[in-house]
Amino acid sequence: MGLIAPNVTADPVIDGTVKSEEYSFSISGVGDSFADFFGRSSHLHLHKNEKLLFVALESGGNNQDPNAGVLYLDVREGGPSTTSEIENISGNNDQTYIAGNVRDSTRAADLEFAPGFNPDYALLFEFTGSTRLYPIIHDDGIYKVGKAESIELLASDDILYVRELAIPLDVLGNPEEIKLLGTVISNTAWRSNEFFGVFDWNIPDGSIGRAAFSLESGDYETFSLSISEPD
Fold first, then answer.
1. Does residue 211 lie within any of the structural domains?
2. How is the beta sheet containing 52-58 ordered, strand by strand?
3. What's the pTM?
4. How far apart are CA 69 and CA 15, in angstroms?
5. Which of 154, 169, 181, 209 is most buried, taking the most CB atoms under 10 A from its CB?
6. Is 47 among the domain residues?
7. Which helix (H) or strand (E) holds 154?
8. Cβ neighbours of residue 177 under 8 Å, at least 6 residues apart?
9. Within a domain: residue 25?
């Protein structure tokens, strides 16, 4: 599903202006039920050098409701097979987005990941323009959302639609490849049909809502960090 651009000759300039020619890997979204935040007119761009993973998001729209896009990153063995395995400890919005449920409530939109995809991090793109990276940690047999990691973020004046950031690869454990999956959900656990990394024929016509949803085999993208460096 992803598009590889092998002729990238330099690292992206993190200036809040996304230039597709600066990125070696690009993904288009699917769906449109939340105004195209991660939908079919949206694009996710990736690039790496020896020390950094560069990520750029170009959203096709933003409906201004308390929603967030969650980009799950699978960088090592282990991890939850479904969001229902991730505990929402504090009940704050960030944990609701990542765990797919509202604490002490029947409101949940459990997402079962595709076989072979078990996330270790969640990169959270909040509708307000904030972006945060959280580890998903295994503690006493329970998966929990850890403390936010440090990332470099610079968005354009159009912060609701365009963001660029850089993540130190050592924060992610210097993986050889990154599997990724993007989804959009509200702070009341109502899930849209917008995804990055999912085949468009696997999604419903409208929002998934407050219901369980299972992804199919191959419903994620893989970005190899062994791609040769630009000269």
1. yes
2. 3-4, 25-28, 43-48, 52-58, 162-168, 152-155
3. 0.91
4. 21
5. 181
6. yes
7. strand 152-155
8. 75, 222, 223, 224, 225, 226
9. yes
- Provide the number of structural domains found in the chain: 1
Contact 68, 82 (CB under 8 A): no
Range of the domain at 128: 3-224
CA distance 121 to 13: 24
Residues near 105 by beta carbon (within 8 Å), at least 6 away in sequence: 189
| pLDDT tens-digit profile, the chain (231 residues) | 555 444 555 788 877 778 778 898 999 999 999 989 999 999 999 999 989 999 999 988 876 677 899 999 999 999 999 999 998 877 788 999 999 998 767 789 999 999 999 999 999 998 877 889 999 999 888 899 998 887 766 554 455 578 888 899 999 999 999 999 999 999 899 999 999 999 999 999 999 999 999 999 999 999 998 755 444
